[in-house]
Amino acid sequence: MGSRKTNARGRQVQEVINEGYINCIDDDNTTFEKNDYEEKIDWILASQPLHSLISNVETHPTIGTLSGHKPLTFDIPIGTEPKPASPRLSLNFKAANWPKFRNKLNEQLMLWNKNRSINSESDVEEYTSFITNSITAATQEAILSLNTFSFDIMMT
């Protein structure tokens, strides 16, 4: 395996492969060619389970590089999980009806009992939820989602 001119570093890599920590994809094609000298010096190394997934290993001709190394390509058939749809709502603030938003928000906020005191953590949570729900209601009524299309149709 490797060049006939293997040095100490090359022997260390060979030892790691021999010990089974990583595996080498076997391919007899030479990967280096320069001045009538050809050798297999470029290798694909992988640990399990990746090693067993590698297929279609190809050695290509040099692509005009001066180094003399031939590119290696291979396939790894790894699929990806589809990205879940974002729960985030995209809103069109430029098309918002701000007076309608303020009116609806004021209307919602007036529903809170002003005489009620906030004394506990659960009171704070309840008040926070009330404000959040008020803003959400005003938003849904006055601000269009970017996914929503609005058409004004004039009848003549």
Q: With helices defined by DSSP (H or I, 4 residues minimum), what is the helix count? A: 4
Which stretches of 5+ consecutive residues score pLDDT under 50? Answer: none
The total number of structural domains is 2
Give me the Rg, rounded.
33 Å
Strand portion: 5-15%
Please write out the topology.
Blueprint: H1 8-19, E1 23-24, E2 32-34, E3 37-39, E4 45-46, H2 50-53, E5 55-59, E6 72-75, H3 98-109, H4 121-142
Antiparallel strand pairs: 1-4, 2-3, 5-6
Tell me what you see in this structure.
With 156 residues, the protein is an alpha+beta fold. It has four helices and six strands. The protein has helices at residues 8-19, 50-53, 98-109, 121-142; strands at residues 23-24, 32-34, 37-39, 45-46, 55-59, 72-75. It is elongated, with a radius of gyration of 33 Å. The mean pLDDT is 81.
Give a concise summary.
Helices cover 32% and strands 12% of the residues. It is α+β, with helices and mostly antiparallel strands and 156 residues long. It folds into 2 domains: 68 residues, no CATH class; 50 residues.
Keywords summarizing the entry:
elongated; 2 domains; two-stranded antiparallel sheet; 4 helices; single chain; alpha+beta; 156 residues; 6 strands; 12% strand
